[in-house]
Amino acid sequence: MQRVMIAGTGSGCGKTTVTCAILSAFRHRGVRVSAFKCGPDYIDPMFYREMIGTPAHNLDSFFCDRDMLCQILTADSEYNDIAVIEGVMGFYDGAEGAAFRVSEMTETPVILVVNARGMKESIGAVMQGFLQYQQPNRIAGFIFNQLPVRLIPFAEQLCSELHTAYFGCLPMHEYTFESRHLGLVTAEEISDLHEKLSELGKLAEQYILLDKLMDMHCSLLPFYQPTVIPKLQTKPVIAVAKDRAFCFIYDENLSILRKIGCEIKFFSPLADKHLPKADGLILCGGYPELYAKQLSENVTLLHEIRTAISNNIPLIAECGGFMYLHRFLQTESGEKYAFAGVVDGTAFPTNKLQRFGYVTMQAHINNLLCDAGEQLKAHEFHYWDSTNAGAGFTATKADGRAWECCHISGTMYAGFPHLYFPSDIRIALRFAAACAKYGGKDASYSTDQ
Question: Is the pTM of this model over 0.90?
């Protein structure tokens, strides 16, 4: 299986731009390509979907063991020519979720992106440091972002002297993507996205050694044991929020629910006046703070959601979806807007990331997703906070920091931490069974495949 990881020396080095350029060029060539992102990022895969027209997936070694990583990697790549995986942060950053760990677990060769702007000889020091910092590693070569064209022979010479491969560069260009507090703006917010991607693809065709990428040697994927997903005897319907305000949901989560037998019905809290008839509800993350006025004015839908929750519809509400459940949301300008009122509190802005990163959560009581004392893996990534963040779980980071979080019950999970179903299939199984039961349907499972 041909595969390559485009990793970077650090956040902001240009690895997303380089990855987008390569994907765009491959698509123009007619190459069948699948795309992946290391770590829990939601936004970069949105760009990949725009380019290749198929779902893009996450590969996260904090949430998943080797078997699950390989299963996700092959599920969308079996009939493609190459899988392109973008790293996260710097190649070695992220502890258990580092791109380095994903490359080792999936035995994937790595092309490292170096931002060469403002450097010449120091480029070699950066390269040598990454090559030698941790060995063995799977760094097969380098791509140089923002490299002046006149320095291409110099970059090739550095690669030769350091016994690594030159895979090309992206010279200075104007095709950049805007950012906001959670990363890049989303793909659908960029009016000239396809023009930018097309131009990046042309640059890649001219300056990146695409044939060399395609011909790079890859070992066989490690042997892995696929996870068997039981199937419900019946088909519960799950309403899932999806629009510009609620856009952070993993394709893997929805894929597992569908494999269990659930029917997914999307709705827009921005545009739809009524909640679809459903047996369960997912309010995913996103940017409700950017659309607070419009969301608060959709009072009919807010009332229907509040009523459904009071009637004990099984509910997962994460981060932005959790904020939507509050009595009020306060904007950065100080305005307050009335939301669903399920959580008696106010979501308010802060000036920095709150409780950022991977966590392991231990439940205090039996609840929708697990029993008391059991643990779930999750991650937090938000600037907004709450006057009532909940206390159903204790969340603990790897460095020992801990805090209380989440509102939970037999029918509810609502809090800032994001869940990733491949980390523990039982989360999806319990949720789907609760949805079936709520809808008066058979909640038993069959393991017949």
Answer: yes
